[in-house]
Amino acid sequence: LKTLAVAIDVMGGDHGTVVTLPAAMEALKKHSNLFLYLVGISDQIEPFVSLLPEELQERCKRVAATQVVEMDEVPTVALRTKKASSMRLALELVKSGEAQACVSAGNTGALMVMGRYVLKMLPGVDRPAIMYALPCDDDNGLPSKVRVLDLGANVDCDPEHLHQFAVMGSAFSKAVDNLANPRVALLNIGSEVMKGNETVKRAGELLSQQQGLNYIGYVEGTQMYRGAADVVVCDGFVGNIALKASEGVARLILDSLKREFNRNFYTKLIGFLAKPMFKKLKQRLDPNEHNGGTLLGLNGVLIKSHGGAQIPGFVCAIEEAMRVAEQQVPALISKDLEKLLYEE
Amino acid sequence: LKTLAVAIDVMGGDHGTVVTLPAAMEALKKHSNLFLYLVGISDQIEPFVSLLPEELQERCKRVAATQVVEMDEVPTVALRTKKASSMRLALELVKSGEAQACVSAGNTGALMVMGRYVLKMLPGVDRPAIMYALPCDDDNGLPSKVRVLDLGANVDCDPEHLHQFAVMGSAFSKAVDNLANPRVALLNIGSEVMKGNETVKRAGELLSQQQGLNYIGYVEGTQMYRGAADVVVCDGFVGNIALKASEGVARLILDSLKREFNRNFYTKLIGFLAKPMFKKLKQRLDPNEHNGGTLLGLNGVLIKSHGGAQIPGFVCAIEEAMRVAEQQVPALISKDLEKLLYEE
After folding, report:
1. Residues of chain B with pLDDT under 50
2. Which residue of A has its CA nearest to B76?
3. CA-CA distance, B115 to B112, in Å (whole number)?
């Protein structure tokens, strides 16, 4: 197995080093071909790393940062003023080629802006997009997943941007999900009045003329969760709203059930017996279980962990970074973009 | 109690008269002040109505239509060619003042276009909007509801349209939900990169300058389901996507649980014991329970039932029509629009 070097912004996320460092150690233990750059404030990394067994210590390198990008910092301000931040230095390690990927649970906007500035865009990509895997049921009702992009990077998109997102998502899915011919769809509304807004309609036209892409047409939000497509494309505003509405309903349902099962002794007892059945569901819905969004379109691998991720979630994100780096996804995207969009 | 006359398009919906006629009878039994126009193909209405007790027969009038608007018909074609349809005749009854409201489970687009053509828009309204009530938890974790518009009538909206939707939704909520000062919010994305697209940002500016409206700012999809606002405003594309994504997740969760509880004899037994706890949840999520969307902005009361609604759901829609007609919502909206938008 070839060694993979991943740079970790250990300061990012709601929990910072309390989550990122134990997760880093966990990942090192699980993957003998993993090498980590732990980028952050020395005082916070040192005590932890010094306790590690020597074998693991040898497979990680501390990189001292003197600044931290705050979770609510304005992205452009962070770009200008936080040149010695853990986020920035982690990205620079990818830029220089020392690391093959960067993982951060930090401020999404800042990560986006800095990632774009440091790593640059792939040729032919106008804008990067954020892609996550969401849980769904496949045609046979079995648990599966669907890749959705953009989930918040671009709030106003042209049809051409959606076209590029489709090509990028497809290339990613081929490489990382091992699908020969991923089904790509546009997220759209149903039969109400007219189908879709102008942007989506024009993107649909572009995609149906696109050779070499398995474009299957429109899907609705309901179908998205039923495995109707492998890659679902939408603009960042719509995608983010759909994602947050989904989270809202999921929480509403779980809270409702909790209330019902907490009514009295009898219902609590049944709730206790039903616990194993709920556990599976909670795992499926837990963002930790499928943690690790990708910022697609950059000339380098950049994985965004959920800010609130716990240790297993952050390990997931590191593993996603390994997969994406191993498959050299940016190069594949670049090749597909060139072949599909700019050759005739 | 003043008599309320409601015109029912008995042909609309996935199930047609099999649902609409029994529901109509049910509603007549429940509300002694209700009078119904049953608009549809005579052959299908006659046998049913002739079986009703005389007391109920006296409170409904059959109106013969010779055409039916199909569920998948192109709205503008329906408008042009279906002048003798049940949908059209039901709307004409509202126009003429014979009925105070119209209820249909038919083709949403056609209903929209015909409603607009027959009833006309309220002065000062550029576009009608579809509003539904969605379930949510209030601040204390108790079941409540939130009115959301637009859910699919307008796929491309200007900030001015969203402004009008906010005023209409607020007037509706005051009258029908009995809220003195409904909290109105714009649906927006979270802290990812930048807050919102240009349309939402500008609508936010308009609304924060608006006197006499309790505008509370942006809400995310997650907060929408936590009772953060009484009225949530968005464009029809975004609203419809959020709604369908919510439905998709809800179904994913329920299917997941069903699978877990169906695993073996033991889990089935626990599932049987847990049934009452699930019943409450299913009721909350069942579109039948809060059935009846309103097409706001028309000069007349037009209620859209879910196409797949069952009998209790269609009764709900008739009852919503009664409430909206009783409160004379179109007149209230008109007054508020004039006062808020066009006076200084």
Report:
1. 191-193
2. A193
3. 5
Contact B252 A135 (CB under 8 A): yes
> In this predicted structure, what is the pLDDT of residue A165?
95
Interface-testing mutation among B145, B150, B189, with chain A (most A C-beta atoms within 10 A): B189
B109-160 residue pLDDT tens: 899 999 999 999 998 898 899 999 998 888 787 888 999 999 888 888 899 9
pLDDT in tens, A121-161: 998 898 899 999 998 888 787 888 999 999 888 888 899 99
Q: Tell me which chain A residue has its CA closest to the CA of residue B242.
A: A242
pLDDT at B343: 65
pLDDT number for residue A194:
57
B54 vs A: CB within 8 A: no
Cα dihedral: B240, B157, B121, B91 (round 10): -20
- This model of the complex carries an ipTM of 0.85
Q: Which of B194, B223, B258, B266 to mutate to test the interface with A (most CBs of A within 10 A)?
A: B194
CB contacts of A255 in chain B (<8 Å) are: 137, 141
Is residue A251 within 8 angstroms of chain B, CB to CB? yes
- Residue A343's pLDDT band (boundaries 50, 70, 90)? low
> What pLDDT shows up at residue A207?
93
For chain A, say whether B240 makes contact (Cβ under 8 Å): yes
Length of chain B: 344
Which residues from B are below 8 Å from A75, CB to CB?
Answer: 193
CA triple B236-B237-B238, angle to 5 deg: 95
Which has the closest alpha carbon to A6: A98, A85, A86? A98
Residues of A with Cβ-Cβ distance to B257 under 8 angstroms: 277-278, 281
B-chain residues within 8 Å CB-CB of A247? 221-222
**Out of B154, B193, B248, closest to residue A152 by CB:** B193
* Residues contacting residue A182 through CB under 8 Å, at least 6 positions apart: A169, A170, A173, A174, A214, A230, A231
Mean pLDDT of chain B, nearest integer: 90
Alpha helices in A150-235 (DSSP H): 159-176, 198-208, 221-224
Contact A277 B255 (CB under 8 A): no
- A138-154 burial, b for 16+ CB within 10 Å, e for fewer? eeeeeeebbbbbbbbbb
Can you tell me the distance from the alpha carbon of A3 to that of B310, in angstroms, rounded to the nearest whole number? 60
Residues ≥6 apart with Cβ < 8 Å to A149: A129, A130, A131, A132, A165, A168, A169, A231, A232, A233, A234, A239, A296
B34-48 pLDDT, tens per residue?
999 999 999 999 988
Q: Are B330 and B299 in contact (CB under 8 A)?
A: yes
CA distances from A150 to A147, A325, B153, B245 (A): 10, 20, 24, 15
Distance CA B70, CA B89 (A): 15
Residues of A in Cβ contact (< 8 Å) with B197: 155-156, 237
